[in-house]
Amino acid sequence: MTTLTAKDKDAVRTFWAKVSGKEEDIGTDAVARMLAVYPQTKTYFAHWKDLSPSSPSARKHGVTVMKGVADAVSKIDDLKGGLLTLSELHAFTLRVDPANFKILSHCLLVVLSIMFPNDFTPEAHVALDKFLAAVALALAEKYR
Amino acid sequence: MTQYTLQAHRPSNRCLWEGRRVALKVASGAGDLQTCTGKPRDSKMVEWTDFERATIVDIFSKMQYEVVGPAALARCLIVYPWTQRYFGNFGNLYNAAAISGNPMVAKHGTTILHGLDRAVKNMDNIKATYAELSVLHSEKLHVDPDNFKLLSDCLTVVVAAQLGKDFTGEVQAAFQKFLAVVVSALGRQYH
User: Fold this and answer.
1) Which of A98, A122, B15, B154 could form a disulfide with B78 if both were Cys (CB 3.0 to 4.6 A apart)?
2) One MF term in GO for this entry (chain B) (predicted)?
3) What is the largest CA-CA distance in chain A?
């Protein structure tokens, strides 16, 4: 995958500033969508009592995931180093197939498109797509 | 930006259904390609729920083709720049602004979107509906089928922006299922 250029990082930071305050809504919507559109992702949450997209567990998880993404934005200059602990978590404990990072990224982009139709320009889209791909790569770092 | 000349894209001998490189045999007469294991392809029809049918029909009945089509194709060319390889004769694609303002991109985006109308009208036989278009994309246009998925993703993003809150998770699931079936049908005749 490609490295993030200075332009990409700027675009991500600029867009993220606009997102500020709405992280929880974005996260919960993205996870809900992921569960609805890609039912195979539910296999990772068999321990939840309620697997429906609008369940309290799903909402809580959306918030958790989004905190991780927001953290990644702040560590955009060194994602590999910054996300080391999270990578270990995903690799050794959660063991999420990395293909699912792509799925969740797509759902995040759809949510951003809905919530920020004017700001989510094609230029912002490509920068964020690259960023999320880089985050996914950093998360998969410790897998093998 | 350097403009590279369009090279003829040879489809690989990769089995599209199981991803392994094998020699494919085309079953004579039946028109059905065999899978890598040699077993005849399961030709079960796609099953659509009432909700899915209604959702697809609804989305396309409200579709602003001249807005969504151009926006989706432009976004695809910008977000996944390697897709520009198929549009060497479209003129200025040097940056996002040029792509978004390019009239050929706009016209082609509208054409592509209208191409989906056939699937909307024949949801129970999308496979057969796109047989000819599949041959066109593989034999004449030499488009890597992965690009269909990239365009689908961009189309989803654009439609989401159009529909806003109405583009719920359930609606998205129906829309993406529909696009996945179309993409599969378009990739079917590759060999």
Assistant:
1) A122
2) metal ion binding
3) 44
Indicate the pTM of the whole model. Answer: 0.79
Interface test with A, best of B64, B73, B75, B178 (most A CBs within 10 A): B75
Quick check: A128 contacting B, CB < 8 Å?
no
pLDDT of res. B191: 84
Does A125 contact B at CB distance below 8 Å?
Answer: yes
Cα–Cα separations (whole angstroms), residue A115 to A45, A129, B72, B94: 27, 16, 18, 29
Chain B residues within 8 A of A36 when measuring between CB atoms? 169-170, 172-173
- Reported as a single tens digit per residue, the pLDDT across A77-96 is 999 999 999 999 998 898 88
Confidence bin at B43 (pLDDT 50/70/90) = low
Q: Which residue of A has its CA nearest to B177?
A: A37
- Distance CA(B26)–CA(B30), nearest Å, equals 9
Taking all residues of chain B, what is their mean pLDDT, rounded to a whole number?
Answer: 83
A13-32: b (≥16 Cβ within 10 Å) or e: eebbeebeeebebbbbbbbb
CA–CA dist B49, B150 (Å, integer): 26
Distance CA A57, CA A48 (A): 7
Q: What is the pLDDT of residue B142?
A: 87
> Count of residues for chain A?
144
Q: What mean pLDDT comes out for the span B124-145?
A: 92
Q: Choosing among B68, B94, B168, B171, which should be mutated to test the A contact, i.e. which has the most A CBs within 10 A?
A: B168
